Amino acid sequence: MDLLSEYGLFLAKIATVVIAIAIIAAIIVNVAQRRKQQRGELRVTRLSEQYKEMQEEMAVSLLDPHQQKLWHKAQKKKHKQEAKAAKALAKQGKPAADGRARLYVIDFKGSMDAHEVASLREEVTAVLAVATPQDEVLVRLESPGGVVHGYGLAASQLQRLRERGIPLTVAVDKVAASGGYMMACVASHIVAAPFAIVGSIGVVAQIPNFNRLLKRNDIDVELHTAGQYKRTLTLFGENTEEGREKFREDLNDTHLLFKSFVKEMRPSLNIDEVATGEHWYGVQAKEKGLVDAISTSDDLILDKMKQREVVGVRYLRRKKMMDRFTGSAAESADRLMMRWWQRGEKPLL
């Protein structure tokens, strides 16, 4: 019995130590994951290699079984030789790449609040860390526009490439309107699909007013401000003609800034003709000088692959597992408030 008791006590001690180690390891892993979630993850994809693999797969599928067997044998030999050559270069401390210039591909699909600019700034920073003037950057842009400050910052991120002398091309397959075009015009070359929506160089803002409804129900709303124009139009208060006039003045000032920016980026444009708030399809936009060529991003990339190594750059912000399935209630509430704010006294591009 004493032996069994001692053995049981020994097992209990071992179990306690194991559990303690497991808890400490779980804490360390959890902290590491949280830090990684905050940092996000930069993903670099060699699009040239993906296309080459797809091309080879299609070519092989059209061969008869005997030819496929010979092809696979030849490829195995080729890969073995390439691996041997790369290993030899590595031993000499030389890069294994073929020395071709690169085309870095960034995707930007913008929403109204332009929160995607947080990833864009990381992607641009990553490209600037390694790019040379011989390299190029292609931004596949899709956005109907949104808040002024958000798209202003997004355009500024693309200007960082321009200021470093790195050729920048923007490809519009679907839409680059308003704030989206503010970003696109930074590029030295703009390509649009035939029916892509381009332009809409204008500013809009709207706000509902419930003052009369509240008055009918004997509900008073008090709004106190310090500064004559701290609030020009409100949701619940009684709006004045002076406030409306100031609101329109602010919209016009924003429009003038928008026009000046586009004119600076594309001096050849007849800005008064295109800055009416209208949008045009790709072919029409080319006639007006808003874009430089009619094509899709796919054809553009395939053409660039002939001379350049094409690399996709994407920065992903990690989400918690629970958020992936249920979504974040707080984020949803914030976005709902953002929509109301956007429709209020803050203008949209």
Give a brief outline of the structure.
With 349 residues, the chain is α/β, with parallel strands linked by helices. Helices cover 54% and strands 15% of the residues. It folds into two domains: 44-90; 102-205 and 240-343, 2-enoyl-CoA Hydratase, Chain A, domain 1.
Coarse structural class: alpha/beta
CATH superfamily of the largest domain: 2-enoyl-CoA Hydratase, Chain A, domain 1
- The helix content is 40-55%
Low-confidence stretches: none
Q: How many domain units?
A: 2
Q: Kindly report the average pLDDT value.
A: 82
CATH topology of the largest domain: 2-enoyl-CoA Hydratase, Chain A, domain 1
- CATH architectural grouping of the largest domain: Alpha-Beta Complex
Q: Report the radius of gyration as a whole number of Å.
A: 29 Å
Distance between the termini: 83 Å
Strand coverage percent = 5-15%
Total helices: the number is 13
What is the 3D shape? flat
SSE pattern: HEHHEHEHEHEEHHHEHEHEHH
**Total E-strand runs:** 9
Largest sheet: 9 strands, mixed
